[in-house]
């Protein structure tokens, strides 16, 4: 079998993985007798997985129980196993030991592997101490220790650490990695990418970090199913070249070199690039950019929203950009229909644009209202939060416009994403792909709580009692 045949076979394998038919334990969910399972088609060379979707199921690596959703971890592992020459990984957080083991196994076949991480997540957890960590860091460490404690004795042995600490597995590989302090700084805003480039031919990217919390759920919390996420696999040498160029800027000469790595605003800022993948047009942007740059990430999204004629569906982890609220209000005045679902934890924060769309302002803990805050005079009806298990977050960052165009990537809809962080932003024009994201939106919409929720109302009442109208 030649290389092109092997790649074609791999493309089919990815689609099979996302259809729940992997030999590793994925299986199509049962259906009522007499019904024929119907799935949506995809553009050639493109596959997409949603870890909470209905209709597919797999065995959870946390509990061994069947659960609904696509196995995003297995999707990544299959891609890694297909590599013959090179694997480039840029991800905020990598703590899944099976992914690390797959990367080490790839090096054993002669594949070159390089990894870039965010500096807050670039130390092997078995080498950390709780007293040195933030509250979030302590919680993360406790969950990782619980997963590694095979004999449940409350202690982590050297063998357990070597088997379960993903970065220690890479360290022993040995696989080189750097973080965003490699340029000699204290780090960029966030190295927030989530992408893998395989053999200069395939890109896998989306909203998911490579963690149990990002895909499967939290240790010791069986009700959780992981933050609501997706990954897209795209077979395209031209797209892979663009992603590799971004990786090379950040990597420089690698660990311990001459500090020529470039992150954040130190990178050479590039404008939106347009590529053709088969019949699909894909636009790619790698923030950050200066606020004065005419094509920064928020400006790109504003332009895409401005072209909406019929419908806009949004599923967002963070939404804090006033200019996008203004653009949505403009499109609504043109009778474009809007559905927006936001993460419950972020939706009710004082800087949230979700509150603006609901026509309310929330003073922060200092009793100040955000400068330039402009709540709508008439609250919108199609705004809400999805029903999630306690501990799970809506971590998507996607939009579907007119059922034809998808905006996605690691890019949260915030000034920090546009002007500070290392991010991926994609605009993909494909009705076939859009149908998959619309189905995900419909799934979440069925359990959504619309308008000002009781939780948000209680928060508003507390702050108004404390602050009055704010300053």
Give an account of the 3D structure.
With 471 residues, the protein is an alpha+beta fold. The protein contains 15 helices and 19 strands. It has helices spanning 3-18, 72-82, 97-108, 135-148, 158-164, 166-172, 212-215, 237-251, 297-306, 322-333, 344-347, 353-357, 415-419, 431-445, 454-467; strands spanning 27-28, 46-50, 56-59, 66-68, 86-91, 112-117, 177-179, 194-198, 202-206, 230-235, 273-277, 280-285, 311-316, 337-342, 383-385, 397-401, 405-409, 425-429, 449-450. The strands form 3 sheets. The protein has a 9-stranded mixed β-sheet with strand order 11-12-18-17-16-13-14-15-19, with helices on both faces. Helix 3 (97-108) links the parallel strand 5 and strand 6 (112-117). Helix 3 (97-108) runs parallel beside helix 6 (166-172), helix 5 (158-164) packs across helix 6 (166-172) and helix 9 (297-306) runs parallel beside helix 10. The longest helix has 16 residues, at 3-18. The chain is globular, with a radius of gyration of 22 Å. The protein starts with a helix and ends with a helix. Mean pLDDT is 89; it is low at 19-37.
Overall form: globular
Low-confidence stretches: 19-37
Compute the CA-based radius of gyration: 22 Å
Overall pLDDT? 89
């Amino acid at each position: 079998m030649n290389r092109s045949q092997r790649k074609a076979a791999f493309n089919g394998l990815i689609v099979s993985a996302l259809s729940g038919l992997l030999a590793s334990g994925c299986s199509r969910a049962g259906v009522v007798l007499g019904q024929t399972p119907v799935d949506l088609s995809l553009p050639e060379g493109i596959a997409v997985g949603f870890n909470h979707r209905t209709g597919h199921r797999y065995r959870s690596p946390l509990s061994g129980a069947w659960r609904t959703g696509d196995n995003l971890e297995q999707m990544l592992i299959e891609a890694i196993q297909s590599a013959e020459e090179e694997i480039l990984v840029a991800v905020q957080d990598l703590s899944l030991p099976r992914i690390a083991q797959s990367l080490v196994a790839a090096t054993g076949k002669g594949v070159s592997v390089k990894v870039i991480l965010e500096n807050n997540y670039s130390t092997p957890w078995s080498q950390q101490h709780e007293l040195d960590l933030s509250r979030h860091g302590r919680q993360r460490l406790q969950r990782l220790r619980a997963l590694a404690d095979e004999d449940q004795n409350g202690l982590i042995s050297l063998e357990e650490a070597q088997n379960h600490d993903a970065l220690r597995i890479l360290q022993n590989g040995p696989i080189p990695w750097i973080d965003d302090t490699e340029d000699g700084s204290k780090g960029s805003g966030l190295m927030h990418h989530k992408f893998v480039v395989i053999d200069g031919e395939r890109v896998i990217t989306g909203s998911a970090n490579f963690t149990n919390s990002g895909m499967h759920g939290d240790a010791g919390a069986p009700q959780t199913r992981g933050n609501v996420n997706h990954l897209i696999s795209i077979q395209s040498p031209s797209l892979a070249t663009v992603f590799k160029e971004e990786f090379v800027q950040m990597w420089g000469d690698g660990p311990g070199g001459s500090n020529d790595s470039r992150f954040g605003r130190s990178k050479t800022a590039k404008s939106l690039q347009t590529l053709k993948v088969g019949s699909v047009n894909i636009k790619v942007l790698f923030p950050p950019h200066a606020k004065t740059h005419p094509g920064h990430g928020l400006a790109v999204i504003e332009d895409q929203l401005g072209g909406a004629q019929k419908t806009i569906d949004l599923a967002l982890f963070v939404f804090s950009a006033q200019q996008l609220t203004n653009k949505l209000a403009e499109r609504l005045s043109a009778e474009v229909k809007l559905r927006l679902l936001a993460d419950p934890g972020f939706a009710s924060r004082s800087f949230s644009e979700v509150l603006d769309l609901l026509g309310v302002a929330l003073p922060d803990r200092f009793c100040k209202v955000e400068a330039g805050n402009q709540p709508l005079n008439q609250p919108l009806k199609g705004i809400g939060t999805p029903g999630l298990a306690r501990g799970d977050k809506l971590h998507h960052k996607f939009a579907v416009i007119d059922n034809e165009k998808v905006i996605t990537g690691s890019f949260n809809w915030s000034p920090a994403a546009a002007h500070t962080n290392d991010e991926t932003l994609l605009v993909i024009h494909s009705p076939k792909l859009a149908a998959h994201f619309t189905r995900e939106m419909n799934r979440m919409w069925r359990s959504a709580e619309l308008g000002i929720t009781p939780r948000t109302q209680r928060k508003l009442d507390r702050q108004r009692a404390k602050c009055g109208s704010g300053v």
